[in-house]
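#dry-run=false #mode=assembly
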Amino acid sequence: MDATRPQPPVRVLVTKIGLDGHDRGSRIVAAYLRDAGMEVIYTPPWQTIEAVVDLALQEDVEVIGISSLATDHLIVPQLLSALRGAGLGHIAVLVGGIVPEDERAPLIEAGVKGIFGPGTSRALVVDQVTQAASEARRLRNAGFWEKAS
Amino acid sequence: MNKQAVQLSLPGFDKAFGEWRAEYNRQIGEDRPVRNRSGIPVQPLYTPRDWSGEHYAADLGFPGQHPYTRGIYATMHRGRTWSQRQLIGLGTPADYNERVRKILDLGATAISFLPCNSGFRGIDCDEVDPALLGTCGTVVNTTGDMDEALAGVPLDRISTAMNDPSPFTLLAFTLGVARRRGIPWTSISGTSNQSDYLSHFIANHMFYRLSLPGSRRVLLDHIDFCRQYVPNWNPVSVVGQHMQQAGATPAETMGFTLSTALQYAQDCVERGMDIDVILRRFTFFFDISISFFEEIAKFRAGRRIWARLARERLGARDPACWRFKFHGQTSGVDLTEQQPLNNIARVTAQAMAGILGGLQSLHTDAFDEATSTPTVRSARVAVATQNILREEARLCDVIDPLGGSYYIEALTDQMEAEIEAVIARIDTAGGMYKAAETGLVQTMIGESALAFQEKVDSGEQQVIGVNCYVDEDEPHRMQPTERPDPVRMRDHVARFKRYKEERSNDDVRRGLDDLARAANSRTENVYAKVVEAAELGITHGEIISCLRRELGFGQPLIVA
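#status=ok
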């Protein structure tokens, strides 16, 4: 890939799955990413896993940011397997919010690329999403050429 | 500066003040500007020039007297301390029952009930991923579940606060339990917390289910029903907490909350209810942030404004209606996941602000509240914090002990002006219902939330352990997270499914038909039919899907 060619903006879906509706965090993160020049697809809370997979496919996102305050992180592993099942395994899933220390490892093992607790700075959020997106692009492009050849 | 006070004659004041000011300026060099969270500039010192006490009788009066700035009762905490009302709710009805009985054995006279998030979403336990059930509240979907949850609880002698959003199925289940046990509804007392649908629509998308007009109708029917049949129940708790948690400043929060109360009161009057009957049952629910003096001033100013609004604008004649009764919860937003034991200190400062602000009931957060539902150990510390403040720090000995402080009184006046400006802005927008419908309030809160976050990001607002005094070695958690026992939960869900198969389909059909008919009629009380449906064995999810169909579902208005 030509490194001098301008990259299209990062496409990121910011959403909440499960039962909780606390959205102060997801709204602030969405504003951070938008201000950093990314294309942010933002949804109201309580999305089903199927709805998130559909939206990720339609919007061709590179990153999904799941915001969780009240235990909805417990079903993120199911989101990851649904994404893989839909051929969207290249998408980077990041989790932000409240994830108790002892419940982090299962998420990382399931394929979550990063967990961001309260107090994470704007700079770190933008940086991590940017990196996650470029890795997702690389994986997607690799997958594309594999399929094509 | 308070203009009333400037004309005061204070012999020797000007000379001494000038000398202090010069010395202050010399020592401090370049002073840092300080503003509180509501944007009010904070001076280094307050004097009789800022508040003189000249208008003591009109502005403060005495406890139990209009305008209630110093407290809504003559004896305040010296006579009766605040109720300790810790939120509880976890797991299955049997899990809840174990915990609530323990609390009652320890002498509690007031309990609370927090349902599972699936209840807030309007669905039953058999429609949810089991991993999410009971992690944030108790799974109660039927009158039978409530009977089990409240086994051995003397319903006629205990006041119960329920997080029970529209259409108030938890109260309906409780009334069903009372009927089964032969307890008259007139002896049931407590509060429908989370009855404030506007606050849900604006700032807390936990609860949102019915369309805005549908929610308005159901709340009015609920108020009217309780007025007639459950007269010791408080059907409305106007909630400032959600808006402050979502980012509104303390002054904005108080303004929005009072505007919401005005909206509900006016709606009741339009329905033909007597203001003197319904207003005495209004209660309020606030967040107590760690902005210590600002919170005290917020509550004192709120009391004064409400007394005036209730008497002058709403025309209530009974002093019981002018009293601003409120429950306070220490703010979870100020708590940190990092260095969690620090939260005990934060909660102590917050609780003190609430107590000195004159609250009637208090929930202190547990130190691990930033990461999970409290454990038994952390919940004990939270209750002990209240006991220590009362018994050891002796915060209850003197009524409104900060009254007369130049700073507190000047700040109360300034907060009052800020709050009234917010109320005026909502009035101009056509009242709180309209302001929520158009997104005005959501936009204001979003701006304040972002502004506050930017202060934290820039380090202007320091948060210990987060953006300063960071200790990387400090373990985040002391102990593993407590989650409901998956086996007990699975059994509960299985029992629920069996229950649905075995009950009378005729009763279910009849109850739901009646409910749908009431929802579409202009004269029938739809809440009366919710109560009947609950007694017929109809579930929470069934009641809600019926009303959602008949009254419409409301998507939250998201303003980015």
